[in-house]
Design brief:
Number of helices: 4
Oligomer: single chain
Structural class: mainly alpha
Distance between the termini: 25 Å
Radius of gyration: 15 Å
Order of helices and strands: HHHHEE
Length: about 100
């Protein structure tokens, strides 16, 4: 596998200082019904929201989940048989059996 060495230019990064993180939250909030009925606010933590928004954008929310809470996203993954590591999700099909 080839390692990516180029860096994303600052103007293309999604962060709070340039306001682009709002696009992630807006995308997440645009899909109804919202998980647990909560619309993510711009002052909320948005790490799990980013994972969910990526799934929405890619059209695979059924594989990634839709949740704004990290703990709830992990619980959702466990129910689906998807392992969680400190690096994120690892689908059970890719986990070596001992």
């Amino acid at each position: 596998m080839q390692r990516r060495t180029e860096k994303t230019p600052p103007q293309n990064r999604f962060n709070e200082s340039n306001g682009k993180f709002r696009q992630i939250i807006d995308l997440y909030n645009s899909v109804k019904p919202l998980p647990r009925g909560y619309a993510v606010q711009y002052n909320d933590h948005w790490c799990a929201t980013t994972t969910s928004a990526a799934g929405i954008k890619a059209g695979c929310s059924d594989l990634v989940g839709r949740e704004y809470s990290r703990e709830e996203l992990i619980a959702w993954a466990k129910k689906k048989g998807i392992a969680w590591t400190v690096y994120g999700f690892v689908h059970s099909a890719y986990v070596e059996k001992a």
